[in-house]
């Protein structure tokens, strides 16, 4: 396995300053210095130089996640694996790398149309103190958290991440269809080379924002509760109440961040110390308790 963790996320917003203000006021993120992307706001969660880049754009959407490779050798090996499989690889310029505070970056597009960035050699960002008295986010070796991406070309996309990028399977979750005549829901959870139960999830439906949700993990339950209060005070729509997942056992809630970006804030996610001893699961229940969903239907 080559991918170490999810190192950064790139979003595009019509008003990057407003999204950055939300991230500080509600999530407790901090501002970072600019790394040269014109009009972009950079946000910190820990000692990394930044974890979120919010670009200026004409639409509100998810752009890409950036996966950390453990070395230059692993980075070049990943490029070679893609090229051998006849996947088009775009090597980033020196300027592209500088904008991400890395030594080198490259990108590909997965079978469902998601832009995938990967890199090696991240700069150090120095000490960081989260807002609202938060003791810190669970990041470090495990990266910034996880993300779930739309993957209507489900099996091809699963194969892409497993066979070409070396992700391991954590859980294959099947849920009932939203309505009669629609396919069953499937979320395929995969782990990188770190203890977090899953770094990436693939959902078998499209999403207009380009992402199903992003996740940040707190260090205690009170910090989750305080964040939920801030979400309510900000008037943001909570689309899943507090609950505990069955597969990774995380206690969390979900809401729509500005731009319609789904966001999960949680605590107590399962960590696997030795993946060689882990047996992937097949789940048919998403939650042990809670997580009552209130997702708006388009047109209502």
Topology:
Blueprint (H helix, E strand, L loop, with lengths): L4 E9 L2 H12 L2 E2 L9 E4 L7 E5 L4 E8 L3 H13 L5 E2 L2 H6 L4 E6 L5 E6 L25 E5 L3 H11 L3 E8 L9 E7 L8 E4 L9 E5 L3 H13 L4 E8 L5 E7 L3 E7 L13 E3 L3 E4 L10
Parallel strand pairs: 1-4, 5-8, 9-12, 10-17, 13-16
Antiparallel strand pairs: 1-5, 2-3, 3-4, 6-7, 7-8, 9-13, 10-11, 11-12, 14-15, 14-18, 15-16
Structure report:
The chain has 300 residues and is an alpha+beta fold. The protein has two domains: 5-120, 2,3-Dihydroxybiphenyl 1,2-Dioxygenase, domain 1 (Roll), CATH 3.10.180.10; 140-290, 2,3-Dihydroxybiphenyl 1,2-Dioxygenase, domain 1 (Roll). Helix content is 18%, strand content 33%. It is built from five helices and 18 strands. The chain has helices spanning 16-27, 72-84, 94-99, 154-164, 221-233, and strands at 5-13, 30-31, 41-44, 52-56, 61-68, 90-91, 104-109, 115-120, 146-150, 168-175, 185-191, 200-203, 213-217, 238-245, 251-257, 261-267, 281-283, 287-290. Strands 17-10-11-12-9-13-16-15-14-18 form a ten-stranded mixed sheet. A hairpin with a 5-residue loop joins β14 (238-245) and β15. The longest helix has 13 residues, at 72-84.
Q: Walk across the major sheet and give the strand order.
A: 17-10-11-12-9-13-16-15-14-18
| Oligomerization state | single chain
- Work out the strand percent: 25-35%
SSE sequence, one letter per element = EHEEEEHEHEEEHEEEEHEEEEE
């Amino acid at each position: 396995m080559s991918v170490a963790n999810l190192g950064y996320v790139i979003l595009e917003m019509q008003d990057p300053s407003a999204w950055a203000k939300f991230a500080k006021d509600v999530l407790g993120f901090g501002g970072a210095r600019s790394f040269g992307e014109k009009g972009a706001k950079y946000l910190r969660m820990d000692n990394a130089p930044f974890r979120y880049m919010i670009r200026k754009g004409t639409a509100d959407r998810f752009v890409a996640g950036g996966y950390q490779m453990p070395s230059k050798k692993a980075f070049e090996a990943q490029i070679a694996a893609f090229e051998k499989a006849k996947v088009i690889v775009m090597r980033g310029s020196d300027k592209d790398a500088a904008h991400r505070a890395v030594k080198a970056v490259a990108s590909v597009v997965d079978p469902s149309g998601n832009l995938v960035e990967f890199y090696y050699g991240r700069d150090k960002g120095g000490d960081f103190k989260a807002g609202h008295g938060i003791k810190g986010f669970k990041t470090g070796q495990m990266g910034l958290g996880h993300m779930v991406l739309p993957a209507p070309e489900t099996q091809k996309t699963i194969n892409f991440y497993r066979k070409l990028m070396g992700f391991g399977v954590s859980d294959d979750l099947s849920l009932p269809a939203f309505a009669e005549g629609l396919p069953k829901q499937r979320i395929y959870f995969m782990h990188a080379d770190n203890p977090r139960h899953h770094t990436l999830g693939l959902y078998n439906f499209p999403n207009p924002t380009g992402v199903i949700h992003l996740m940040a993990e707190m260090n205690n339950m009170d910090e989750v509760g305080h964040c939920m209060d801030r979400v309510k005070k900000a008037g943001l729509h909570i689309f899943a109440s507090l609950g505990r997942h069955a597969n990774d056992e995380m206690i969390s809630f979900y809401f729509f961040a500005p731009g319609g970006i789904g966001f999960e804030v949680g605590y107590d996610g399962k960590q696997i110390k030795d993946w060689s001893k882990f047996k992937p699961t097949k789940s048919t229940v998403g939650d042990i308790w809670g997580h009552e969903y209130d997702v708006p239907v388009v047109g209502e």
